[in-house]
Amino acid sequence: MKLTKHWFLPLIHLFFPRYCAACGRRLQEEEIGLCKHCWEHLPRTNYHLQEDSLAEKLFWGKFPLGRVTAYYHYRPGSSFAEIVHLIKYRNRPELGITMGRLMAEELMQTSFFEGVDLLIPVPLHKKRFRQRGYNQSERLATGISQLTAIPVATNLVSRNRHTETQTHKTAQERYENMRQVFQLDVSPEILTGKHVMLVDDVLTTSATLTACADVFKDIPDITISILTLAVAGH
């Protein structure tokens, strides 16, 4: 079977070539999603290596905070922004898994995932899910889980209200837009004493993630960590 794979995949890629999501260059056999050059030059924040990072400060005092990082810088018009748009708007869920794996591979060299019991992707409303066909945050979490073996939990929290896009809203408008959007769908006792990690695509003002974390506010001894693919505006 392995021998078949070695000659069969190059034949498939000869007729159906794959291209780098960032630069458009044709991928080599060993490259997945991104070429080696673009992967090496992704705009990493290194927030996970910093004490009191800009990302962490956005959540201070809001809930029982564990660890926080937003792994890459999101700048409109950049090649990395194209990656985010492909995942979020252009039907490339497999690229979300790839980016989740890339983050996890590097973060596993630190203690970032130590003690984490569950990965919880920020849920989409059913209407948005039907439009997109997948939840990009769940795809990121799946990639992370493939390397860390931390389970992905998609049945604990739901989004009970369809909200307008956050893109052109002020920080205050974002918070108002997200009030009471999420609900806890399980008994709080299930999560007592757990360390959960919320996973999302882009961190901007913290409004969405704070609203999601708010559903856990009455659960004893819970710890909430945050991991996003990118951060905008920092």
Largest sheet: 4 strands, parallel
**What topology, given as strand order, has the largest sheet?**
1-6-5-2
Residues in helices, as a percent range:
25-40%
The geometry reads as globular
Order of helices and strands: HHHEHHEHHEHEEHE
Average residue pLDDT: 89
Rg calculated over all Cα atoms: 18 Å
Named CATH topology: Rossmann fold
Number of domains: 1
Please give the CATH class.
Alpha Beta
The CATH level-2 architecture is identified as 3-Layer(aba) Sandwich
The number of helical segments is 9
Strand content: 15-25%
**What is the distance, rounded to the nearest whole angstrom, between the alpha carbons of the first and last residues?**
48 Å
Unreliable spans are 1-5, 7-16
How would you classify the helix and strand content by structural class?
A: alpha/beta
Description:
This protein has a four-stranded parallel beta sheet with strand order 1-6-5-2, with helices on both faces. It has helices spanning 2-15, 36-40, 54-57, 79-89, 93-107, 126-132, 136-148, 171-177, 207-213; strands spanning 65-74, 118-121, 157-159, 182-184, 195-203, 223-232. The chain has a single domain (43-232), classed as Rossmann fold (3-Layer(aba) Sandwich). It is built from nine helices and six strands; from the N terminus they run αααβααβααβαββαβ. The radius of gyration is 18 Å and the shape is globular. Residues 1-5 and 7-16 have low confidence and may be disordered.
